[in-house]
User: What shape does this take?
Amino acid sequence: MLLIMPLAPATQAFSWEALFSPGALSQPHQKLDEKCADCHGEQDKKTTTPQCLACHKKVATDVRNKTGYHGRAPGIATGDCKACHTEHKGRDHRLLDWNPATFNHSQTDFRLTGAHSDATCGGCHKQDKLWREAPHACVSCHEDQDVHDGKQGKKCESCHNARGWSRNVRFDHDKTRFHLKGAHKTAACGACHTDKRYAQTPRECAACHRKDDRHTGILGTRCDSCHNTQKWSQTRFDHTRDGHFRLEGVHQNVACKTCHTRPTSAKPLPKTCIGCHQSDDIHAGANGTRCDTCHDTRKWSQAKFDHSQTRFRLTGAHKDVRCEACHAGDVHAPLGGGACALCHGKADPHQGRLGQDCKQCHSTRNWRSGIRFDHALTGFPLLGLHELADCQACHADSTFTRTPDTCKDCHGKKDPHKGSMGEACEGCHTPADWTFWRFDHDQTDFPLTGAHAQKVCDSCHTPGTPASETPVLCGACHEQDDVHRGEFGQTCDTCHSTRQFTDVEMRR
Assistant: This one.
């Protein structure tokens, strides 16, 4: 039987999509008519979920982040969109047939609790808005009930809860920067928060208690230094703790106004002795401002000074030296860290070449006697016979500079090797005695084995020739013993051993 397809009118374009479509799309998807591939992918035509999420990006984000209804409801993340949202049922078909009265709101980002459970959907979900666009903030629905006129911000849940807007109101003042203590707990809110102003409410005592200030502001605005929140008339003040100035001696009997002549906020009161006793300073400032170093609070005229409390303890002959001998001006002015050379520089026979730390050798008992010196503290410790040598044997003058410190500088003329063994004499000789020496040839590149161990040094080392230039090839010494006349080269140890040149042992 031949099936004849009707031809479309000449004025209408032919469309295979329209021909095979199972039905018209709903109103929201009308623009996708004849675009089957936009929803039905090439890879898996049984599901449209990837294509749905590609267009509905906010839903895709909810599924990925497990937020919103599509991210929280069970089965949606692994299910197929068309299981709930069917298509091709006409323009007037609703993509989701659901009952708001049975909808589980706990599967959304906004769980309905308290009075919210009795609210109608239209109270929060506007007709011209998507369900997901309903606001979550309290002020979005309760702005007309805000008795604070917005001055408390938009975080209504800080005080209100879902059980009832006007009841069960709570507020923890201790979570603010001003904790309510003592009489403040029973004070009315409006006593401090005037005109419903809550932000930037002053926290200083003087803001509310200025009328109660008997000091007329001269002690500043830190009323809590003396007063407490239990009762304004109860005061306390510890001059050591609160004033950071301990009252001792005659200071305890001085009237407050003697020192506090101006408001404390205008300029800090001096806490140094000279701040009050400058007129009593008979030294005219020459001894600095640390009056308490010599004077105490019992009586100004009683003075004492212990030099051991400074960085320079007076010992020996220093105890009898007058102060002016070292302190020409201010006694607290630095004197160079107590360097001996400041006073004894002219008497220094070393002309300053040994530095200024004279106490390494000299003592304070007497400058010229009792001199000591530990040569081990230098770069050349004295060992063996060096310890018995006179200083002048190495040091030409008392400056002790340019003193030689190598063996050859002192023992070069006695070197039997004439310099052929180098300058590191300590490799063989010791400070115990120049004639005592030791040398282990095995530590060189030519260990002595066999008959070589019995040879004297001069057999191989020619006087005047550096040890590093001594030949190590067999032929250099055994050329006259070579019966092969050099035909086999100079590496005789290939066949011969060091026990005896005539011992022949072929080695492959």
Q: What stands out?
A: The mean pLDDT is 81. Strands lie at 429-430, 433-437.
